[in-house]
Amino acid sequence: MIAVLRKLSLISIAVSVSIFTPWVYAQLELFSTAYQSQPFTATQQALLKEHNEQPEISHNQQQLAILYFLFNRTDLLQPLAQTLPAETDPQGAGLKTFLQGFVQFDNGHYAKADPLFESALSQASQHAANTEQHDKWLAIIKMYRAINHAYQQHYTQAIDQLGKIRVEAERKSWPTITALADFLLGDVNYQLQDYEAALTHYQRAEAGYSDANRLLKAHATMARSQMINIVGERPQAFALLEQAITVFQHLEDTSALAYAYLLMSYYFDKDGSPEEALEWIAKSVTLREQLGNVPDIANAYVHYASLLNDNGYNQKALIYGKNSVDLVQGTDDLAGLWDAHVIYANILYDARQYKAAFENMRKGERALLKKARLDMTSEAARLNSEFSLEIEQLRNQQLDHANEVLGAKLALNEQKQRFQTWLMAGLVTLVLVFAVTVIVIYRLYKKNRQLANHDVLTGINNRRKIMEIGEQSFSVSKRYNQPLSVLMLDIDNFKSINDKFGHNEGDNVLLFIANQCSSSLRSSDCVGRIGGEEFLFVLPNTTADEAAILANRLCNAIKTTSEVTDMSIDLVTVSIGVAEFKESYSDFIELVNQADMALYDAKNKGRDQVGIASLPQFSGA
Description:
By secondary structure, the chain is mainly alpha-helical. The protein is 69% helix and 5% strand. It has three domains: 15-252, Tetratricopeptide repeat domain (Serine Threonine Protein Phosphatase 5, Tetratricopeptide repeat, Alpha Horseshoe), CATH 1.25.40; 372-453; 463-618, Alpha-Beta Plaits, CATH 3.30.70.270.
């Protein structure tokens, strides 16, 4: 099962005053704990009653909007935010626009949310109120703008912005904003799959919230539980999640409960308890359908469909899989789009609907490639920024030195010999600076090429590079009618290795496999890492029979060699799919998909073996 648990339910920020307190901006409190002390329904009813009695007072609407914001009830917040008055007071300017941006963000429309957050920040910044409340409000808007950048794959930018806000908040003794910045930094690192770093930030957030911030602290507890389930002990993850659920149930935080139930389902599934897993995910689906948030419903449907299919409820799984694909189409959530299509493709494949499975797998791959391109563009922009900064520093050094030389020339004009000595020294220095500049540029160029073409962990070709090599080889084979084969290798039970031995040992296994693959190839062959535990081989001038010999030899070599290594795991096995170029294939991707299907066949037959694609069997018909 490949279901990816998406966005953590973001901790909300309350910009409000205590219930029943007259709306006076001088009394405005950030992160008020008033709404975290009693159930949602009781607070909502009190505010609605106050609003019905005094409908002409606008602060009643604002307090309601902030309550819905705090409890992540965008189903109630969206219509209310449209009717809010535009505040012009410095301590609340831009609140309406900010809430509208949050609604778009929570519904997965990150491109629409971005200009709204920018506009809210501009409105608030126009009022240069030199107060702590105003400064906190600006920090709040910037944090949500930053996390929206993260969901647009601008990770470096988001981490930099959140890190600066956290440092400022800690320096000014704003503990709640400091804790929230840590929480959001944890969310960004979770997206980057740096789970250890995410766990550290969530722990700091949980410790940073006061006991009065019950809801915020419970969200951090739930987030810490999720990370511990990945990198720690599952019993501790269960205990922390149950602790958070108790708070959510008491405060009637339906949105948080829906996510907590989904996590509980995920834990039980990984713990080998399918009945409990299905029971909890059904609860999550029910709550998310009630709330009506499209990305959240799609996320729950994906997990539900995968669980149903794993436990033999294939027809029901097909329905929820199709619904998840339909729902996620209208969002900017590329990871969710990839997840929905891949899960649905697996369900269709198990239902023997091979053509539809192939189409959905291709759509999922396109979403993943688009996300990868955005990730690479973001990383390239970061490297280019670093490169430009170093060049600018060198240029400034050159200008500073030129000024020194000119000053020396004017001051020593009457002493020709001394002037010539200074001039020579200046020229020598300029040559050295130029040489240093060339060296720095060359090193940055090599670093950039290395990052662009090679996998950071294993050092072999990355997905982009091996696919480029494959496309070139495919063109040659098609033009000159030469044989070409590909291998798709997947490490058996790799998730279990990570769960049992930890991610460091998982990385050691990946390095071991990469070394075994590289040492088994001819000079004309190429291998690259295309996913977490998947490797792709491109074998020019090689028939399927020859490729199968190599694949079997590689399977045996990995199994045999792993028994005598110093890794913690006793035995590592792999499954390999083999596919050969056919004239009927339109592009290299089709050849790779044939190998991938052969790989699935090898895994279905028990793993630790080689599957060979044949055109009639794996054409998707």
